[in-house]
Design brief:
By secondary structure, this protein is of the alpha+beta class. Among the domains are: 185 residues, BirA Bifunctional Protein, domain 2; 91 residues, Anticodon-binding domain (Rossmann fold, 3-Layer(aba) Sandwich), CATH 3.40.50.800. The chain is built from 18 helices and 16 strands. The strands form three sheets. An eight-stranded mixed beta sheet has the order 1-5-6-11-10-9-7-8. Strand 12, helix 15 and strand 13 form a beta-alpha-beta unit. It is elongated and about 90 Å long. It starts with a helix and ends with a helix. The model has no long low-confidence stretch (mean pLDDT 89).
């Protein structure tokens, strides 16, 4: 029984220090990019009222199947949040005086009782940026610019597929697909790249789509009309034309800004959630080492207003990055390991002085671990070597009396005395040089 209790719950994971340090680095990198773009941090509770999560303007029926539900001691129906968008909606509704546009980022845990796969656990971290209060597609252009910058800093080469739900909805309308059927058809079309035209035909039939519509849709797919210009010629409805105009404007903004990124028009990209009303996008690795998207988002101009039902409009657009899938992507590369500390200070009968030295170095920005166990020098150096620490500082009575500290370079196996008053600068220069070499 004990072994069963000690097992990690399916879909969750213990992240040991080396892996967690890399997760922390990813998080810090994303936070730095978000703040560079003027986004403000927000934190919302993991526990939410189930009624809010279950709202028809939330994530939809498919996600509700994966919600973790519970009752508290007051018998209130609660749930663990499945994304960070619904809690954002609540925050906007509770703060009507909020200045618009409101640009927020949130990095936090979300929970879904769904299938477990590479980069997707049942407890995972989302990193979201949302802009509430503007209809301009300049907001989408800025989010895509931010995404390219974020993945550049993370060392991942990506491309972004873009589409517009208005365009896709208008195309389906002109093909004769009724509004009640549009959602099912979009879900089938979204699989086109994976299953091909024959697969889409079979999927539509499994969804009990009328045969006349199945034939019309597959015939259109076989024509290969898949560029903005060709679609603009073939389909003339105002909805299609508006969707194309928004995409062209956004692409022009990105190109005009000199953003160096691979943007690809994908006419059948729909994104699964029905909340999206305009431009949508998904981010993929160029090398295909992970086939699922590692980020996604889009415009959702109606969800907040409908959910709050206060007569106001809250146009919004967002993007979400999956921290754990990014970690999985980095694990496939020969990335530099993250060290816990740059320096190990080893006291030889000088515990108080060594603690003072360690604190001095920490104040200068050096990451310092203090040897706490009183082990012999050889074993302390062996520990430093195994932990990947760059320098060991040996500090005994002789060093205190001479005003020096012995610095051992763990990478080169060399030692030298360094005057105590110069040790901060000496280490900073050495550590900066080491980072440049890497």
């Amino acid at each position: 029984m004990e072994n069963e209790v000690l097992k990690t719950v399916k879909g969750t994971k213990d992240f040991m220090p080396q892996e967690q340090m890399q997760r922390n680095w990813i998080r810090r990198t994303l936070e730095a990019v978000f703040e560079t773009y003027g986004c403000k941090p927000l934190e919302t509770p993991m526990l939410q009222h189930y009624e809010l999560l279950a709202s028809k303007y939330g994530g939809g029926d498919e996600i509700l199947k994966e919600v973790y539900r519970l009752n508290d001691q007051g018998d209130r129906e609660l749930g663990l949040r499945y994304d960070l968008t619904v809690p954002l909606t609540k925050v906007v509704g509770m703060n009507p005086e909020m200045r618009m546009p409101f640009k927020r980022y949130e990095i936090g845990k979300v929970f879904r009782d769904g299938p477990v796969k590479t980069g997707r656990l049942r407890e995972f971290i989302q990193c979201d940026v949302d802009i509430v209060g503007t209809t301009s597609v300049l907001a989408e252009a800025e989010l895509l610019s931010m995404a390219f910058e974020a993945f550049k800093r993370l060392g991942l080469d990506v491309y972004i597929e873009v589409n517009n739900r208005k365009l896709l909805t208008g195309v389906l309308q002109e093909l004769g697909v009724p509004a009640l059927r549009a959602g099912d058809v979009m879900l089938s079309l979204d699989k086109l790249e994976k299953i091909g035209v024959d697969g889409v035909r079979d999927d539509l039939r499994e969804r009990n789509v009328e045969e006349s519509l199945v034939l019309a849709i597959t015939s259109f797919l076989q024509e290969g009309v898949n560029t903005l210009d060709l679609l603009a010629e073939r389909f003339t409805s105002p909805l299609v034309q508006e969707g194309i105009r928004e995409l062209r404007d956004m692409l022009a903004y990105v190109k005009g800004a000199g953003v160096n990124g691979d943007l690809r028009f994908s006419p059948f990209l729909a994104r699964g959630l029905g909340i999206y009303t305009g431009i949508v996008y998904e981010i993929f690795l160029q090398d295909g080492s992970i086939t699922s998207s590692i980020g996604s988002g889009g415009r959702y101009d109606q969800i907040i207003g409908r959910l709050l039902d206060d007569g106001r409009e809250y146009p919004a657009v967002g993007i979400s990055f999956g921290l754990d899938v990014i970690l999985a992507a980095l694990a496939n590369r020969n990335t530099q390991e993250q060290e816990a500390a740059d320096v190990l200070v080893i006291p030889l009968g000088t515990e108080a002085s060594s603690l003072g030295l360690a604190n001095r170095l920490r104040e200068s920005g050096v990451r310092v671990e203090l040897e706490l166990t009183g082990r012999r020098l050889k074993k302390a150096l062996d520990y430093a070597n195994k932990e990947g620490v760059a320098f060991a500082l040996i500090y005994g009575e002789n060093e205190v009396n001479s005003g020096q500290v012995v610095v051992r370079d763990m990478r080169e196996g060399t030692e030298q005395p360094v005057p105590l008053e110069l040790v901060e600068k000496w280490l900073s220069d050495k550590l900066a040089g080491g980072k440049e070499e890497r």
